[in-house]
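Let's do one together. I've listed all components of the complex below, 423 residues spread over two lines.
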Amino acid sequence: MIDQNPPVTEEELHAYVDGELAPDRRVAVEAWLASHPEDAARVAQWRAQADAIRARFGVLASEPVPARFDLDNLARGARSWRGAAAAAVVLAFLTGGVVGWMAHGASAAAPSRFDTFTTQALDAHKVYVVEVRHPVEVTGGERPHLVQWLSKRLDYELRIPDLESNGLKLVGGRLLPGPFGPAAFCMYEGPSGERFTIYYARTDSPQTAMRYREADRFAALYWVERGLAYVVSGPPERERLLSIAQAAYDQIDKGTPQAK
Amino acid sequence: MGGFREGIEAAVPALRRYARALTRNRELADDLVQDTLVRALRSEHLFHGGDIRSWLYTILTNLNRNRLRALARRPALQPIEDNDAAEVAGPEAGARDIERALASLVEDQRSALLLVVLEGLSYREVAQVQGVPIGTVMSRLARARLQIKAYLDGERPALRRIK
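Okay, and this is what the predicted structure of the assembly comes out as:
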């Protein structure tokens, strides 16, 4: 018996599985599979592979979308990014031309600044929030000294926000060893003794939108603004943390004069 | 204007699914998706109609390539971890098999296969996303399927013995 149709190619078998086959070849392919058990077995394997992939990963699309993907927030970050990128280019030329720029590119591609800084900040948070007698080196009563000291060590004019309107009083701050140099760390306390901290470290990463991370019993919000990475850490209550971070961000961003 | 934002927003769940399957690491995947969204929002003026979803997959695929290149320059810095091990423990071991099999693919093959079977893109769309002719997409698919079969054939008996 002579087959009227041209023989079925492997490409057609894939196209058949993927719904890409030209409609007029469908009957021919199905007839081919009926008489070629090895090809039929391959087609069945490919289908089983696809089913396994969909079974493993398909449900991920029905997970609720976390707040960090909120487009309005991201768009705000995206707009200010242009300025940061332009500044980074200028800086790269000032500090060593192409090499500086390539280093910048490499660090932007690595996923790790967020991880590095939030891990550091959460570690410090865990260690110091449980301290009763010596939670800080310089107390909130010496705020001007605290600001001056930490700013000098980071070589960056720090702003330590006043979070009284969020019900938080400044306990004080301390200096920490950071991954790329000294880091500053300030602690706040709420009416029921709950503590929040702000971690500051110099970074060459470009400006970012706020990003949230939970680890163990704590949570952190991270952002970068004008060469400084900020991490606000506290109990894992996303909304409260966000409103505190927002208040801190607004004061830092507007350059509100420091409270006495 | 509104259509652009809404189109992006509607694609976020699928982008997260694709990124997770591509990287097999939750944090990395969500970082990739966030970077993709930021880049897309920044490039609105570059988007001249067409399928937003394919465009987003293209951005994500390129960002992931850049990331892998950066890692390749600094080998052994960051091994890919299986963050999701707990999710698929015990009787779900079959899910582990397909994950490991995917991990054994080269990036372009994994991406082609996932875009077709998981994301439901047409060959033509995948060709656009990957910036290659359709024939290349088809050969990547064929090699991916062959490799997964070889991996599962080789691996399963070994796993059974261990159990």
